[in-house]
Protein 1
Amino acid sequence: MLLLPGLALLFGVFLAPLGITLRYSFNRFVPGGLQEPAFVLDNYVRFILDPYYAAVLLRTLAIGAGVALVALLLGYPLAYAVARSRSRWRALLIAATLIPLMTSVVVRSYGWTILLSNSGVINGALASLGLPRVKLLYTMTGVVLSLTQVMMPFLVLTLVGVLQNISRDLEDAARGLGAGRWRVFRDILLPLSLPGIAAGSFLVFALTISAFATPRLVGGASVEVMATMIYDQVLSALNWPFASATSIILLAIVLVLTIVEGRMLRTRSAA
Amino acid sequence: MPDTARGKLDLGNGVSIGNLTQWQTSLDPSLTPERLGLGARTQSDRSRLSRWFSKQGNGYNTLRRRLRQGVHEGSAVPADIELRRISKRYGTGVVAADEFSLRILPGELISLLGPSGCGKTTMLRIIAGFVMPDAGSVLFSDADVTDAPANRRDVGMLFQSYALFPHMTVEANIAYGLRMRGVTKPEIRRRVEQVLEQVRLDGMGQRYPRQLSGGQQQRVALARAIIIRPSALLLDEPLSNLDANLRHEMRAEIRQIQQRLGITTIFVTHDQEEALTISDRIVVMNRGRAEQIGSPVDIYRTPKSLFVAQFIGEANIFRGSILGRTERGTRSFALDDLRLEVENTAAPDGSTAAILVRPESVHVFAPEDSRGEAYPNRFPATIEAAFYLGPSVSLRIRIARNVLLHVTQPAESLGSTLSSYVPRQGDAVMVAWQATASRLIPSS
């Protein structure tokens, strides 16, 4: 009984629209913004056959992987520091980690355009050091950078939980046995935190490939990703069936990866 | 090992190295046998060498590793460990070590005993190299290792949590220290097998830690620590997570292995019984200082402070004043209205003092029993509470309005003394003890 309101909400605002989207994706597009009920694979075929869409998909996945990787490299040391710090510093570090999440995505993204633009803060600093300017705004690098900032908290928080469960004694034991810091990381921390790395990176990856606002604002028209393409299909081309099909493809990718990741973790913990 | 010739090498600054093996020189032509001498087997040679090598920069790292390995082929000589005026204060204002000094002899098992927060674990972690002291120095066989990181100190450590690597098999856990030292695979396999036998875990090498019981896990940890033939073994409350019977068994086992291998061992515990049974010497710690250092018997029989008296064993402590000398060469002692006879002391008449009477030094007689007359201290008293513990009976006996005495009597002797008398609350008895059983505790 207590489940009912939750289930109703889940069905009403999540499953039902999803079902409608799925249904639309098989409709036939009528130029002029209409669709006629049908049951055809036209939209999927179009996506698969046109190399332009494959490029968008690849770009999206590359950005997802890039953000996950950069966030991991930057986030791991931070997560380690949080996991090993004492109460006072800990609260401060966690707060600092979460700040990007508390900022509106639009404000944050416009902030990044100011930082990244050709006459922006970063290029200004480079120029004053006598270094050549780098084009960052409307590039994949810029998109990855700004998405990393907001995605890192998800990774850090996941890793903190895992790293906290790795007793400090294990690191001390390894060091006492003659392992230097790098060996301790490689032999103890890394293998034991692998589930956290996998879960956190995957979370970041999944969130990144469905991100919309930041790729649009920082990437502009030159960095088109799945989410911005779907948006344009809906609002500019008015091609709802194709937008639906694209959405379903994106969803399917995330779904498949979730299953694969879950299975990987299960076999690891069973070993 | 290749044949060796003995020699001694002066590296300047008073550092000399004797006993290096020939193969070490083959790694670096500039290290001629004349410069190096042969067979660095002793701990102090190794420490000096490793310090010297660390000053020489990267080219010597391989050599140093080979040297360590070479030493581990032979039997390690136990280190003596010296702590010189070590101080450590934590940010929160907690003083964990306060000018703490201690010399631990080669092959000795010494316990650091004290309540939680007394600094014993910090001291162990300073010796291990996990914590840097604010001041003072740590010496292993006369070599200053204060600034050496933990992975260069060559100590074996046991943790309360066992700290076995959960993702490695028992074998991989035990082999880890040897792998870090670049020991060859067949040699590792041979020694792992040997050490598994030593801790009675033969055939368990392929299991994972979580498949073992707590006692077995700690034995794996012990094997992992001793296989590197460490210069010192550091034990951080290793038995606290085991149940009572297993704890006694492991205690005996650790002691046995420690004595057989002759490893200098430092044992941190808050359990006084554990410290009394296992140690050569005990350091009773309080607020980062050593309250008393001595053999278990010393610590128990002649505590040098109230803190030690109260921390070790059960204690009756009475404050009063010292009066004149008796004809038996003992002193009188005024405790409220009671007059006690206590051990002799140079303290002047009238000075206040505290005395310690151990519960087991007090004898309980029936009021009319004449045997009580052999004791200078005897008082009619009333039993306030009696607890039967099996081998002994624990009694709370009031000997004066403000004086309550804790007494432990073997259940056997009680029966014979009081002829099948079972002490009950409210019974009148006679308590008696010798003058020497009332020890004066120096006031601090």
Note: Residues 1-41, 57-64, 66-75 of chain B have pLDDT under 50 and may be disordered.
Protein 2
Amino acid sequence: MSAEAHAHPDAHTGHDDHHHHEESFVSKYIFSMDHKVISRQFLITAVIMATLAMGMSFLFRLQLAWPGEHFAIINFILGDKWGKDGIMAPEMYMALVTIHGTIMVFMVLTAGLSGTFSNLLIPYQVGARDMASGFLNMLSYWFFFLSSVFMLAGFACETGAASGGWTVYPPLSALPQAMDGSKLGMTMWLVSMSLFIVSSLLAGLNYIVTILNLRTKGMSMTRLPLTIWAFFVTAVLGVLSFPVLFSAALLLISDRSLGTSFYLSDIYIGGQALEQTGGSPILYEHLFWFLGHPEVYIILLPALGITSEVISVNARKPIFGYRAMIGSIMAIGFLSFIVWGHHMFITGMNPFLGSVFVFTTLLIAIPSAVKAFNYITTLWKGNIRYTPAMLFAIGLVSTFISGGLTGIILADSALDIPIHDNYFVVAHFHIVMGVSAILGMLAGVYHWYPKLFLRHMNKKLGYIHFWGTFISAYGVFFPMHFLGLAGVPRRYYSNSAFPMFDNLVDINVFITCFAMLAALVQLVFLFNFFYSMFRGPKSEQNPWGANTLEWTTPMAHTHGNWPGKLPTVYRWPYDYSKPGKPQDFCPQTVPLEEGEIDGGGH
Amino acid sequence: MIKILVYVAIILAIFAIGYVVRVYELATSLKGKKQHEVTDSDNRMMGKIMLTFLVVFFAFVIWNLESFGPKMLPESASEHGVGLDWLFNFNMTILFFVFTITHIFLFYFAYKYYGRTGNTATYFPHNNKLEMIWTVIPAIVLAVIIIFGLKAWNTITAPASDNAIVIQLYSQQFQWTARYSGTDNKLGDSNYKLITDTNPLGMDDNDNKGDDDIIVKNEFHIPLGKEVEFKLNSRDVIHSAYMPHFRAQMNCVPGMTTMMHFTPRITTQQMRDKLNNQKFDYILLCNKICGVSHYNMQMTIIVDTEIDYKVWLHAQATHKSQVNASAAKPVAAK
């Protein structure tokens, strides 16, 4: 599949024909099929959802640090039903934990991250006029939007939102008798997730097709920036694994509404024995984690891709080990499909099967280690320019290492037994997946803000935002390891029922203080983000001196991206500070000189 | 009214910040600076903060270890747990070493190579030897970790010995019930369809194996130095039997029986003396979200010496005697 074959000269003129159409507000900003607009739609929706989900965590952190204390703000926000006298109801606590997790994992770090940057960067960086199908792309946003609305609408249900944790294991989630959160709120959750999966599939297929078929002349696969490689493997993972979650959700819907027993057997609840026999909740766990684990990399890979690009551009050095980076992205992607069982070591799964999953899971540490070492080596002897984006990228490398290392403990089935499902796990996945991916996403926002909104964000506020976020992220999640090692289970409304946890109150207060700091610092970001959209200084065409194709387009939102012909690519994207060049960067559109070797060859 | 005032205050605050930033930006543009461009002094400052962060971060980690470390679980009360704790510390030592080395390199490079105008970065796109080294070394270290881990896993999950004491742990929203298998060391049959208020475990009275079973709530006893095998069941949703002091955990799944086993090595009284806390008790918690009172689903575990255990067990009524007792005082009691 040579890239040359895909440069269609007629496609250019075809686009130019309707280039100057006057578009109505609705078709330009609402039902737009332009990848740049859709990217902004995803980003703004994700920022709003992230703010809400962080607000939820702020509320339940108050409860965890000071259980039983009266907070006016809890009554103010939750009302008398869920926050009577300023004390959060246990039902509300569980709903908040569940929806916080679901929104963060799916709405923010899957749709928000891939939706924003895959949409923005794939056509730009492969040199295409737009996505392969603008229409599917538009649909993918609106399915996502609907899904977000349904997810939040759970809180409007009289019986409350879904509250079985973001993994919604049956039978708890399948039986309305089991708790209020499994009534209408759970239906909303399932509807929301079904819409979300549709959105994700439409988007993923589009990304794959665009990357494979719409690369401009000269853009071979080994000249793609690592961002595109990461988005590509991410999309493949999504397309292969989300349908499995869809099947899990369908069977769950069927068990809830049609009286089937895929996941149910031998249950006595609410004073009666249920008819259902023969099913098994373990089936759900397998289906869920068959998505659930690739999902972790669906979240993380785009963040790592963005980091590769940002670190290389700002260290003014080629990313170290480009081909090894591609190899490790693919290895991580492949392995992510055969490790899901490490979420199920203590479900009663055959211990031998457990051993297999230990082996495959720990294998992932090798490509991950290669990535981390390559980032660090990229910094070595660089000439590092500290844009806010660069700070966030370095922050990601740190959290990726410290969160990844505790994963080695959790992947070791024997060591997992005493810490499974407790705060050690919460600490681990928040650092390695939550914080890392958020830092990567923010690096992307600061770095490509000029392409998104044609303006710059305020640098000083960016510095404050980074240090505040980074320090408070460790302040929140590092001490959580110790809660886990003290045996505190996750998803407990309060630890006060157990005298053995009494001496841990101060850790929880400590964590909540940092959580409040983190929330406060995000206000700085929100302000900077929305203010700069209208008032930020206008950006020049290539403000960071970067090599990739998006910076060869004019600083304007032109339909079709390049006003004239599509650019031709002659070199890999990482020729920074290459000896013998007049500048410390050399865009991909600059032809190779006589005898010059491409792709980092000497 | 207060709500409205709060909203108004928030909106005003946002506008105020907006104007402060605007004024600041106008002031910098008057000085002819492009405020978004990163200057050498920015780079120097960020580089120094990176180095400072490295130091502060490690101070923070050490402070965490010192002040929160002692709050971790006491030494393992089960025999296999001693090995697990050793393995945990072994792995953690390796990981902490990697963590330290990588962070020192990361933040030191971030400081050392902060950008200066006129400097040029070194063009260093790849080096096969280096890459080979840091692929092979992690692979070797991981192989060691895997081998030790699987050895421990295989020992822990091997079937319990035949003379292990069999106890059923039965979970339901939101309580635990323990059923001892009695003198025959065999649990009587049960069926969820037989569950009633007086037969909460759904025991099948036609099965003689159940006659000597003993059902207890609130607390259960296990003997020191004897292997105990737990058979776990759930009546309604998934629960997880979590005994952190024994480094033991297994899910209770409706529709199937799961198992775990261990040998206690420290009695409750010994542990109380060790911890200097006469109120201390081993606890069984639920560690899988199971509903609204998930956070308060517990049962006390008492590890006795073998003699005390036998005395305690002997004092408990068998299932048969309970059935007979309730049959003896029928309707009149209601």
Note: Chain B is about 45% helix and 15% strand.
